[in-house]
Amino acid sequence: MPGENSPKSGGAKDLRQDLIWRLEAFGFRALFDFLRLLGVERAAARGGWLRSTCLL
C-alpha cells in the first residue's frame, strides 16, 4: 500500500526507533544524575581519569 511506510503508519520500525531514543535518553539522564550525586570535584576527577586512560 502507498501509505504503509509513512511516518504516521505506526509500523514496527517507528516503535523500534522510539524505543532506542527513550533508552538513550534514559542512559544520559542516569549518567548526569550519577555525576550530580558525585559532586563537581569527584565528577571532574572521573572525567580526567577517563580522558587519561582512553585518549593516550
Helix content: over 70%
Structural shape: elongated
* Distance from first to last alpha carbon: 54 Å
User: Strand fraction band?
Assistant: under 5%
What is the makeup of the main sheet? none
User: How many DSSP helices?
Assistant: 2
Rounded to the nearest angstrom, the radius of gyration is: 19 Å
Poorly predicted parts = none
Structural class: mainly alpha
> How many individual β-strands?
0
Arithmetic mean pLDDT:
86
One letter per element, helices H and strands E, the order comes to HH
Structural commentary:
- It is a single chain.
- This protein is mainly α.
- The protein contains two helices and no strands.
- It has helices at residues 12-38, 40-54.
- The chain starts with 11 loop residues before the first helix and ends with a helix.
Which helices and strands, and how do they pair?
Blueprint: H1 12-38, H2 40-54
Short précis:
With 56 residues, the protein is mostly helical. The protein has helices spanning 12-38, 40-54.
Give the tags:
mainly alpha; elongated; 2 helices; 56 residues
